[in-house]
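Reviewer 2 asked us to include a model.

Predict the structure of this chain.
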Amino acid sequence: MTTTPELTRRHRALIVEDDPAIRKLVGKLLQRRGIDIDVANDGKQAIEKIGSGAYSVLILDLMVPEVNGFEIIDFVKHNQIRTPVVVVSAVSHQALTKLDTEIVKLVISKPFDVEEFASSIFELCCSQPAPSSQ
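Predicted model (structure tokens):
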């Protein structure tokens, strides 16, 4: 049996988080479910990686340095990037209600239940075929 690229391609997540402990936790949770990860410590790195990579999901803390999460969401929208965004943040509920639901598919408040988090991300990103590399 031959395998096609669509069958062997793996899902990739970009984790945009400035807290190393949360970045590591989220990365391990996703890797255990077979999702490859890439990380950005700040918003500037995130925009560079989003522009040059194909991701199944973007996991985004809103309060990252350099370029904040709201600006990253605007970048995704204005560049017509179709990757779903998951916001993981401790910001107020009022700020979260202003997020663009066409871009942000899921909002998870910190602190979060790790198993529920991992299941939600897996369901969101793996319900579609993995994107091809650019």
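Helices lie at 5-8, 20-32, 43-52, 69-78, 93-96, 114-126. The longest strand covers residues 104-109. We have added this to the supplementary material.
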